[in-house]
Specification:
The protein has about 220 residues and is mostly helical. It folds into two domains: about 45 residues, Orthogonal Bundle (Arc Repressor Mutant, subunit A), CATH 1.10.10; about 160 residues, Orthogonal Bundle (Tetracycline Repressor, domain 2), CATH 1.10.357. Helices cover about 75% and strands about 0% of the residues. α1 packs across α6 and α4 packs parallel to α7. The N and C termini lie far apart (about 60 Å).
Length: about 220
């Protein structure tokens, strides 16, 4: 087995086990057993459990965030993007990945890992997540702020979080959406999903700021 193949098998096993059992509940021995590797290989490629967790996050999150930033760069190079265009640049990359039979399952694993991270007191793992998304949040909120000068920064961040929540919930229940809607909504129609979500989220960003909240 080649070195790179071993590394990928370790990442695949760790991703699945971290998603299913959480970080504290997953031992390095369980990962090596599932990957068909030994502890020396894990130490060689990653050095520590924390570094392995970070590598699992990075492998799935970085390509999506890179696509988001490239999309936003193109929009800004072409002129003054609308709220809808900015929102689409943020939402479309993960929504498209989520409907891929293989990559979508991996993205669901990462979403489950994020859930474990945010519900546990381990600040080191939370810091990993902040590092994964800090540039994205800064770039997209700055772009939105230029289009929405009347929305203060705190409200903009709340609305950004609501956008993330809408996206994450839709991805999490995608297998059940047809049943919930009696077949009227098809999550496999990714273009239709994006076309429905973008104006909904954009309207939320444009909503009036609550009275008395002008900070």
């Amino acid at each position: 087995m080649g070195t790179q193949e071993t590394k990928e098998r370790i990442l695949d096993a760790a991703e699945r086990l971290f998603a299913e059992q959480g970080f504290a509940g997953t031992s390095m021995r369980a990962i090596t057993t599932a990957a068909g590797a030994n502890l020396a290989a894990v130490n060689y490629h990653f050095g520590s459990k924390e570094s392995l967790i970070d590598a699992v996050f990075t492998r799935r999150i970085r390509p999506i965030n890179e696509e988001r930033l490239e999309w936003l760069d193109r929009l800004e190079a072409e002129g003054d993007p609308s709220v809808e265009q900015i929102v689409e640049a943020f939402l479309a990359p993960p929504l498209r990945v989520s409907q891929d039979p293989v990559e979508g399952q991996s993205l669901l694993h990462v979403a489950q890992m994020i859930g474990h991270a945010t519900s546990r007191p381990d600040s080191r793992i939370k810091e990993m997540l902040v590092h994964q998304f800090d540039t994205i949040i800064e770039r997209f909120t700055r772009a939105l702020s230029r289009q929405l000068p009347e929305v203060n920064h705190a409200q903009l961040l709340w609305r950004f979080l609501f956008m993330v929540g809408s996206m994450a919930h839709t991805m999490a229940i995608s297998k059940d959406i047809k049943g919930y809607t009696r077949g009227l909504c098809d999550p496999n129609d990714v273009d239709g999903l994006i076309d429905a979500m973008v104006p909904f989220v954009a309207a939320g960003f444009r909503a009036p700021v609550p009275v008395g909240d002008s900070k």
